[in-house]
Write a structure and sequence with these properties.
Elements lengths: L1 H9 L2 H19 L5 H29 L5 H10 L13
Helix pairs in contact: 1-3, 2-3, 3-4
């Protein structure tokens, strides 16, 4: 909630979201290249720090951009969409 509130306050939600996506991607790539356990733990911690605010930022963006009728569906989608295949999802209309 902290990062969603900060991104709302500075009015740069998209930029904040992109920074966390890039940070997570870089940490994921780097964790595959490390050779020691200590470095791996460090980069996995960095992955967790950059991944944590991501879902909250996506949900707050979807709340702001969605109609009131569709908000519940769109706010649950980032959490559960990786859990089931795309052919089981309802089509968006």
């Amino acid at each position: 909630m902290l990062f969603a509130s900060v991104s709302d306050f500075i009015d740069k939600k998209k930029r904040t979201l992109i920074i966390f996506i890039l940070g997570f991607s870089i940490a994921t790539f780097t964790s595959g290249l490390v050779g020691g356990l200590g470095s791996l733990i460090l980069f996995r911690l960095l992955m967790g720090v950059t991944e944590g605010p991501f879902i909250l930022l996506v949900q707050s963006t979807m709340m702001a951009e969605s109609t009131p009728k569709r908000r519940a569906q769109f706010c649950g989608q980032p959490l559960f969409s990786p859990c089931y295949p795309s052919y089981l999802r309802k089509p968006h209309r």
